[in-house]
Every structure is written in structure tokens, then in C-alpha cells.
Amino acid sequence: MPNPQDRSPMISLRGITKSFPGVLANDHIDLDIFSSEIHALLGENGAGKSTLMKILFGFYRADAGEIRLSGKPISIRSPRDARSARIGMVFQDLNLIPAFTVAENIALFLPNLKVVLNPQEIDNRINEISKQYGLAVNPRALVSQLSIGEQQKVEILKLLLSDARLLILDEPTRVLAPHEVEALFGVLDNLRKDGYAIVLITHKMKEVLQCADRITVLRSGRVAGTLLRSEATEEKLVKLMFEKALSGLKITESKRDESSKPILELRGIETRAEGAGVTLKGIDLQVRSGEIVGVAGVSGNGQKELCDVVLGMTTCVRGEKYLFEQNLTNRSVGAMRRKGVGFIPENPLAMASIPFMTVLENMALPHTWRYARYGGFAIDWKSLKEDIQKTEKQLGFSVNFYAIAKSLSGGNLQRMVILREMTHDPHLIIASYLTRGLDMQSAIAARQALIQARERGAGILFISEDLEELFMLSDRLLVLYGGRFVGEFKPSETNIYEVGHLMTGSKVEHVG
Ligand SMILES: Nc1ncnc2c1ncn2[C@@H]1O[C@H](COP(=O)(O)OP(=O)(O)OP(=O)(O)O)[C@@H](O)[C@H]1O
Ligand SMILES: [Mg+2]
């Protein structure tokens, strides 16, 4: 690949500056984006990546600075302006309409009304483009029935059909299974060959080094550096991001005692699927004090349903659930909370926070009974703050207590939930995709927090798609596929390939 900088840029950002109350999110940022390049944007949580791209997409307006298209200054005041400059963006949270079909979602987005009126024509255009770039989806399928990976393909198709030439993807791999990531990179590679420019925001170093042509690192709202992939190493990028090398994870020995009574026990649990959900069948599970039980699986195979059953957010039609030997089958979430269960859900904005409340108010939510004073008419904010600050010190990351939850960056929201749930030393922790959206430093801190919790005797149910992380942390590893556990291992007695096969439902010839 020749150095893209030998040509003139498709888009140039000059001096882009944007502040929000109390935060300088972008501070005089210069950035060039060329055709036929995948440009990775890296940086710690809150560094200003999403803000910068939302400015380019016309979602926010910069306080100062200039955007040039092929050298000429342009004004982008709205996503509509961005679209006419052929700039498209897929947000961190996808926003398709679930009750509509793929074709309807795409038609809604296309400015050209004539196309909307002819369903056959739009099906043909979808099929044509999807064939060309390996983005196979059925135009007639309902979006609610598509996996996240498929929905993402629809989002990309939407942009291609609307004639975008610059595609901005904000953490597209955050919620993708490993095989979906491979497929996405295949698509991006094809697009690059056809002259598209792609900006890829990600926290995954491997992905950056695998597919980016150039890499820009942001730190505290400024450009810390831009490197060609050929000159980039993980070490250099980490240094640019955090100004220091990262300390590794300290893994201590597990103190689990197999003869001890389990903290959590599920016996023969069965659920009935709601909507497009998965049915759990014959789920037996024990989590003991001092152990991390990993659940490996491709998301959508019952992970959400498993968490819902454990927490009491869904009822089971068969089987029993015990917490500290007490039968709590089909009891409320509150009953579980009061017994010291911490929960880090897969979607913190929808499932673990009230977006328009402040961080501190959100921190109080699951613990209102603990901090209620004067018969429930007041909250003891000072004690709450002190407790959270203690956890911040232990974990080594913090959040702004007075920010509105929905204004937090993706990773900072995840940090908020982790801090809240780790406060009060929960006896049982249900952690779903713990490190999603976290930068490398925070991901290490979050994993370290689980190890600390194990050390003081907590039991942990750890759900993840990241096999490396599962093998690193789990004392026992269960594989979830199609709503059933299809394998149980000690990590030392299996390997990534065996578990990977079971996760995807393919049989393994030799087990053990
Ligand atoms: N609408 C908003 N209102 C107030 N503050 C905001 C808003 N959007 C972003 N911010 C703040 O601007 C800063 C940069 O946020 P941004 O979302 O750009 O970070 P990021 O680099 O994308 O981080 P992450 O990796 O966590 O997604 C953060 O401190 C964030 O809280
Ligand atoms: Mg972001």
C-alpha cells in the first residue's frame, strides 16, 4: 500500500475544537482522511473520538475549526449536510427500527423518494451492493430477527446505497462475535480497494494492527500522534494513548473449595422464549465462593436469558434457583440485590442506568434502601460519595459524579456501572461482557477488580465472547450454545479451538 499521504486528502479537519460544560472534548484537532484508506482512531475512554466524528457527521457543531472536502472549506451543520458531502456514520449504538424490514429501514434512510416507492427496485439495489461487498442480508427480513452483526451490515449497506464515500464506524466490533469481526474486516478491505475512506474507532489493538493503513491517537481531546501501520507497534500506540506502559494483570490463586456450599445454584432451569429470544433448557450451574465461572459463547445463545433468570428479571417455567441455599426461584430483582448480588449487564445505557439522571443519582439507584434517610425522604449523598470514592481508589479509575449519564462517553458509562456494582463488596457478581467499550487500561483495572473480588471470597459468573479473557480469568469454563450448556472444562484441560468449535455449534472429533 503506497503512503496515502502522497495524494491529497478527501477530508481535512483543521483546528476542530468543541467543549461541553466542564469538558474540552476536542482541542484544536487536525486530521486528514484519504480515499482508499482505513484510518483507525484510538484513545482512552473520554479522549474525544466519538465527539470528533460526530462533528464531521454534523451531529454536533464545532466551536471552532474548519472542515475541508477535497481542499475546499465546507459547512456541515447537520447529518443532511454530511450526507450531501458523502459522509456516513454508524453510531456506537445501532439505530435501526426493529419492526421494519431491512429494505424498509434502508428506504427510510434514502433521500431519493422514487426508490422508496418501488420495493422491487430497492431489493435489487440491496442485493447488488451486498453481493459486491460480501454484505449478505435478506432485504425482506425483519430487523428484530437479525443478529447485531447482521444489523451492522444493514447500517453499512444503508450508507453505501446513499452514496457515501467516507464511512465512519464507531466501535463496530464492540458487540461482534469473533467470526463476525473477520467478516466485517473482509468487507472493509473490499471497500478500501474500491476507493472508499473508512474511519474506524476501536479499543482493540490487534484489529488496528491488522487492518488500519494509518492510526491517529487522541489524548485528552488532542492529537497525540499519527502513525503509518508499518511504523506502529502495540507498545508505541499504548505510550501515545496513556503516556506510559501499562502494568499487567496480577492473577492470584483461586481459593475455591469444591466441597463448600455454592453461593448460587441453578437446577434444571428452563425458560420460555420471549419474542426472538432463546429458550434455556436444562441449565445446571453452581458458583462457589472464591471462584470465577466463565461462560463462553457467541452472544445470542442464551447469555441474556441466563442473566435474567439469575437476577429474577424473567420467570422460569421449570427448575429452581438457590442463593445461599435459599430457594429464590422467580423472586424479584430486589430480593437478589439485597442479598448482595452485583450485576454488570451487557447494555449499560438501556439496562443499568437512567440516561437523564446524573452519575451520582445513578450510583444510588440499586442502593436507595441503603442510603435512604428520614424514612426514605432523603438520600445520604455524602456517604454514597465516600463509598464510591473508596471503590474508585481500589479500581484505579473514576467518573465525573455530576455528569448526566447519557452524556458520558461509551467507556465512561461502563466504568460507572462497574464502580457502582463493585461497591459494597458483592458476594455474587454477574458480569456480562465486562470490558466492552473499555480502553486497555480500564479493561485491565476491571479484570483486576474481579480477581480482587474472588480473593475476598466472592463468587463470579463471568460471561464473555473473548476467549483469551475467559481462559485468563476463569476457574471453570462452561460453553453456552442454543440455550444449553454444551461443555464444561477447566481452562488448563482444554484449548481455544475446542471451546471455539463448541461455541459455534460444530462438533469436535476429539474432546479432552
Ligand atoms: N453531549 C455531551 N454533553 C456533555 N458532555 C459530553 C457530551 N458528549 C461527550 N461529552 C464528553 O466529552 C468527552 C469526550 O467524549 P467522547 O464520547 O468523544 O469520548 P470517546 O473518546 O468516544 O470515549 P469512549 O472510548 O469511552 O467512547 C467526555 O468527557 C464526555 O463525557
Ligand atoms: Mg466513543
- CATH homologous superfamily title of the largest domain: P-loop containing nucleotide triphosphate hydrolases
Strand content: 15-25%
- Going across the major beta sheet, what is the strand order? 6-7-8-3-9-10
Number of helices: 19
Report the count of strand segments: 22
CATH fold label of the largest domain: Rossmann fold
CATH class label of the largest domain: Alpha Beta
Termini separation = 44 Å
Structural class: alpha/beta
The percentage helix is 25-40%
Identify the overall geometry: globular
* Biggest sheet statistics: 6 strands, mixed
CATH architecture of the largest domain: 3-Layer(aba) Sandwich
Mean pLDDT: 89
Radius of gyration over C-alpha positions, nearest whole angstrom: 24 Å
Contiguous runs where pLDDT drops below 50 for at least 5 residues: none
Bound molecules: adenosine-5'-triphosphate, magnesium ion
Number of domains: 2
Brief sketch in words of this structure:
The chain is of the alpha/beta class and 512 residues long. Helix content is 34%, strand content 23%.
